[in-house]
Amino acid sequence: MSANNSTAPPISVLVYGSVIDKFNIYKQDYKQNESCGILIGTHSIDESKITITFATEPDCNDKRSRFSFKIKSNKHNKILQNRFSKSGNREVYLGTWHTHPEDHPNPSKCDTDDWLKQYSINRNLFESMLFVIVGIKTNKWFLVNDNGIFILDSNLIYHEKEERV
Amino acid sequence: MSLQSQFMKFNETISLSWQDEKIKSIREKNDSILDDIKAKFKEEGYPVIDSFKQGSYITNTTIEPLEKEYDIDVGIVIDYEKAPENPIDTKKKLRDVLLARNFKEPKIKKPCVTAQYFKAGEKSFHLDYPIYKKDQFNTYYLAVGKEHSSSDDRKWEESDPKGLIEWLNDNDYFSSNEAYQQYKRLIRYMKRWRDYCITGTERKKIYSIGLAIMIKESFAMSISNDGDINDVTALLNTVKNIKNRYFTCVDYINNKYDVKVNLPVKPYRDVFDKHGSTVGTLFYNKFDKLLSNIDAVNKEDSLIKKCELLKKNCFGDDFPVPDKENNDTKTFKEAGYISSPQGA
Ligand SMILES: [Zn+2]
After folding, report:
1. A107 to chain B: which residues are within 8 Å by CB?
2. In chain B, whose CA is at the least distance from the CA of A101?
3. Which of A71, A146, B134, B173 is the most buried (most CB within 10 A)?
4. DSSP 3-state helix, strand, coil percentages of chain A (rounded to 5)?
5. Which residue of B has its CA nearest to A44?
């Protein structure tokens, strides 16, 4: 894997409980296909915090097999655009999530290439993007910015009960 | 943090349930008064065969009263065959029970017997006891009339108190449970709005049941397909519907309005009967004011300012104002491009 091992930027990630609940539903602990979706949320003004408020779920128009996926459905973008306008242009495309059929997941070349691609297309909008691989026992978080891909230390990831909205 | 989360907090602050610890002493008093009523009515030869809570406790739309006076509304049911011909007899006996318990000035009103309970250091409350007789077909007849009503004005009037509760609590009428919950929240918001924005004797004419019926019949849900709940929009559109539905202009020069809201069950009478144009005009103007106040909130960008406006103009101090702006998060020109992500 080509993750950068130099120090990750000082950024914390707050994940809504409902997002974690979705990850747990799609965890590949049996023989399910890989699942995938996009992460939606906000950036703090000082870029010290990213909050994940919503994760889209796989749709029948997405391509999924046991060992690969491709997000093709336009439902993900519909949800994104809707939440973007409802939040007063605050909730944006943060990155993607997908599952691996392994306890402690590691990204494939295909994964990291795609993350760099997603970031390069959006780098004029966002300073960084987030990607997560949902394993059977643990999840692994990555941040992508102009300096490359960084593994995020798990103690920077906070799970919080969703505000009742 | 969003405006909706402030509404949710507000809803929690003002909600009051019958099981609430705060009104435990009132519940206990209610039970013991009920025991006395049962004893008295038995003595009179028309035993109580049923009693049930009416009003907002049973529809779960009770709100914390602003002036700390709690309302209790309990229907007393006697058997049709044993009921005296003159309904006022039963009401006088009930008043006697309340007098014996040292209530100050219990009163016989047209639809019920009512009393206030004040005692230093204790929660004050207001009791309403409508009396019904019920026949073998489960039809209820309400004891209607005041103490000195002529024989024409006093009667056992067919009525459907339980049907009204069922109608208000009919979950199936709504497209989802979330919509049903939003409708119930709107009733609570509107009751607090009334208590805060309308004062004195005028406030007493804006009956809660009238508000609840209007809100259900005019309800404009605001929940998006992906589940985003928006109470301020639901409130705005519901009040607009109400304004269009129940009012008739009766005096174009002085802008007087009549209001008519019929009970959805027997006896189908107008809830605001006889107050028509005083209540109508008051209501109409207050609704107008509420709509323009909500418009002002929607035009405002800052969350703090939105909440301050709602607090000052619509709901009073229980509406929470956050200490931080929503703008500790960035805004963006675009939501970002999802470019067919893939992986393995
Ligand atoms: Zn992968």
Report:
1. 343
2. B344
3. A71
4. 25, 35, 40
5. B329
The amino acid occupying position B115 is A
* pLDDT value at residue A4: 55
Maximum C-alpha span of chain A: 42
Residue A106 corresponds to which tokens in the numbers above? Answer: 């590691």
Ramachandran quadrant class, B45 (left: phi over 0; alpha: psi -120 to 50; beta: rest): left
DSSP state letters, B127-173: EEE-EEEE-TT--EEEEE--TT--TTT-EEEEE-HHHHHHHHT-GGG
Between A and B, how many residue pairs show a Cβ–Cβ distance under 8 A? 114
pTM: predicted TM-score of the whole model, two decimal places: 0.69
Angstrom distance (rounded) from CA B259 to CA B250:
10
Name the residue with tokens 């009967």.
Answer: B273
CA distance A55 to chain B (A): 12
Interval B115-169: pLDDT, tens:
888 777 777 888 899 999 999 999 999 999 999 888 888 999 999 999 999 999 9
Q: How remote is the CA of residue A147 from the centroid of ligand 1, in Å?
A: 21
The CATH number given to whatever domain includes residue A72 is 3.40.140.10
Distance B86 CA to ligand 1 centre (A): 82
Yes or no, beta carbons of B338 and A38 under 8 Å apart: yes
Active-site amino acid positions of A: 34
Whether the per-residue pLDDT at A105 is higher than 60: the answer is yes
Full domain range(s) for residue A129: 12-160
Domains of chain B: 21-161 (3.30.460.90), 170-340 (no CATH)
* Closest residue in A to B301 (Cα–Cα): A88
Q: Where do the DSSP E strands lie in chain B?
A: 48-53, 69-79, 104-108, 113-117, 124-129, 131-134, 140-144, 155-159, 247-251, 256-259, 342-343
Q: What is the CA radius of gyration of chain A?
A: 15
